[in-house]
Amino acid sequence: MVIPEDFSSYGITYIENETIELNGLRIFGSPLTPTFGNWSWNKSREKLERIWRKIIEEDTDIVITHGPGKGVLDLSLDRAGRLEYCGDKALLNRIKEVNPKLHLFGHIHNYRDIINAGTRTLPDGDTIYSNGSMMADGMFGIKTSNGNIFELL
User: Fold this and answer.
1) Count of domains forming the chain
2) Is 90 helix (H, G, I), strand (E, B) or coil?
């Protein structure tokens, strides 16, 4: 169990399925991601859709989630070795509705010649999507990208 007070003594603000205001920015954060294997912070896609509704449309500047929306820097192999876009469709839909400045996530790493790390935008919005993962599958412990840095003015 995560105890936010454990973080605050180190100057860290822990956000779990809620919005906070920090330095004039409204930030929603969630550690949840769709169920895949037996990992922590997994929820069924149906339950996640209710969580994503907590992202407030007005004035949300940044959304931070563990994983991506479906089709955005999320190409990977399924358990049978087939390519799939494994992000969350309900999350992508909510991000498009809210249209924050940034959607920051990781979870889906690079794999061989599939590059998920980096940023992109979609033609139907202004949000910058950022996959900050820094490792490649099968190469944990070896940094394969440098993450992403943003300056919001």
Assistant:
1) 1
2) helix
Q: Which residues of 14-53 are buried (b: 16+ CB within 10 A; e: fewer)?
A: ebeeebeeeeeebbbbbebbbeeeeeeebbeeeebbebbe
Indicate whether 153 belongs to any domain: no
CATH number of residue 96's parent domain = 3.60.21.10
35 assigned to some structural domain? yes
Alpha-carbon distances of 93 from 52, 53, 101, rounded to whole Å? 9, 10, 15
Residue-wise pLDDT tens digits, 46-88: 899 999 999 988 789 999 999 999 999 988 877 788 888 989 9
pLDDT score at 92: 97
**Does any domain span residue 31?**
yes
Which residue carries 């794999």 as its tokens? 111
At 4, the pLDDT band (50, 70, 90 cuts) reads low
Mean pLDDT of all residues in the chain?
87
